[in-house]
From TrEMBL:
It comes from Streptomyces triculaminicus. Residues 23-337 form the ATPase AAA-type core domain. This is AAA family ATPase. GO terms for biological process: DNA synthesis involved in DNA repair; double-strand break repair; SOS response. It comes from the Bacteria.
Length: 384
């Protein structure tokens, strides 16, 4: 489980070090940095797939993503570290930090691609020399061996590659491989489509689907998988709690699956194309949260979108049920959803970690009630 998340110089997040628990709810007014926190977590996940540099380039490169407020660090000036975007986390088993910096000027057209300047993994909650497992500085990497020594590799990495994606070897770096697979298990759901042409409204080829796809196209197969190899009773209870007397079904025609919702008082079930946006979105959340294959981390961005207020209590119950099997971060604009989660967390024997983001006088995002360094978890960035 992740116990600390650290972000530095990403958009409005000049420096943010926050503790995480099993269930975390991120709230705040518009423009306080909730989306930046969500996107920073996604960038961390992209690092394990070798896609973080490309993702940053799509955002306009470092000039568009670095902290834009007062006292912005300037690359190449004295008096401190060069400008860079730093992301990291620490947990019960591993910690990881990566530092992206400006590329060295040359004649390449890829001048929006940031470079990985420093990258480290370690054991335990805090980076220390004694806990280092892998240490990358520029193209050189050193990996701790079983006898406590170091295996050094020169020019092992290109500046746009992560050691998580390139050096996770079961013989040379088994801990790095474990960390990479842990991060790759993280799941993110953000504004899954429910419009008239959404993939979830159409019949799709059905195969066993323990993990709902990011676009929800395999919704019918995912719900049927929950019914057959997961917690079918929890699915029935979740649907009945949201739509009393209703039950979700799956029709199969020539191997193509289509969702049906049977409702009290109707002579026939409704197809996915007939459902309201809110009804379809709730069923998408049910499929994501009742997954038979829980991830290490599940991050939900604005799950309340398009939902009627009456659906927020059953959605909160779905989230709380899922938090019994996986760590969850919910980024929400809805105080009602946050209140429902807080009100019922004790019933599920969970401690809710509430993270309310606000802007200080310098337009920097901080956590309300934790403005000082003494209010943060202990955290050290690797130096360049």
């Amino acid at each position: 489980m992740i116990t600390t998340l650290a972000i530095e110089n990403y958009r409005s997040l000049r420096r943010l070090v926050v503790p995480l628990d099993r269930l975390n709810v991120v709230t705040g007014a518009n423009g306080t940095g909730k989306s930046s926190l969500y996107r920073a977590l996604r960038l961390l996940a992209e690092a394990a797939r070798g896609g973080a540099v490309a993702a940053l380039a799509r955002e306009g490169g470092l000039p568009s993503t670095l902290w834009a407020g007062h006292e912005k660090p300037v690359h190449g000036t004295g008096g401190g570290e060069p400008a860079g975007l730093r992301l990291g986390f620490a947990g019960t088993d591993f910690g990881y930090a990566v530092d992206f910096g400006h590329p060295i000027p040359d004649r390449s057209l890829f001048d929006l691609d940031p470079e990985v300047k420093r990258e480290c993994t370690w054991t335990g909650p805090v980076l220390r020399p004694a806990t280092l497992l892998c240490d990358r500085s520029g193209p050189a990497v050193r990996t701790r061996t079983a006898d406590g020594g170091w295996h050094r590799t020169v020019n092992a990495l290109r500046p746009y590659d992560s050691m998580l994606s390139e050096l996770a070897d079961p013989q040379l770096a088994p801990d790095l491989l474990r960390l990479r697979e842990l991060i790759r298990s993280w799941r993110f759901y953000d504004h899954v489509r429910t419009d008239a042409h959404a993939p979830a409204r159409s019949a799709q080829v059905g195969t066993r689907t323990p993990v709902l796809s990011h676009d929800g196209s395999d919704l019918a197969a995912a719900l049927e998988t929950i019914r057959e190899i997961g917690d079918g009773q929890a699915l029935d209870d979740a649907v009945d709690a949201a739509f009393p007397g209703s039950r979700v079904e799956t029709d199969s025609h020539g191997g193509r699956f289509e969702l049906r919702l049977r409702q009290r008082g109707l002579l026939r079930p409704l197809g996915a194309g007939e459902l309201s946006d809110g009804t379809l979105r709730y069923l998408l959340w049910a499929a994501a949260l009742l997954t038979p294959r829980p991830p290490a981390l599940l991050v939900l961005n604005e799950p309340e979108a398009s939902l009627h207020p009456d659906l927020l209590p059953p959605l909160a119950d779905l989230i709380l049920t899922a938090a019994g099997h996986t760590q969850i971060v919910v980024v929400t604009h809805a105080p009602e959803l946050a209140a429902e989660l807080a009100r019922n967390s004790a019933r599920h024997r969970l401690d809710l970690n509430s993270i309310t983001l606000v802007k200080d006088a310098s337009a920097q995002t901080v956590v309300a009630g934790r403005e000082g360094l003494l209010d943060e978890p202990l955290w050290y960035w690797p130096k360049r």
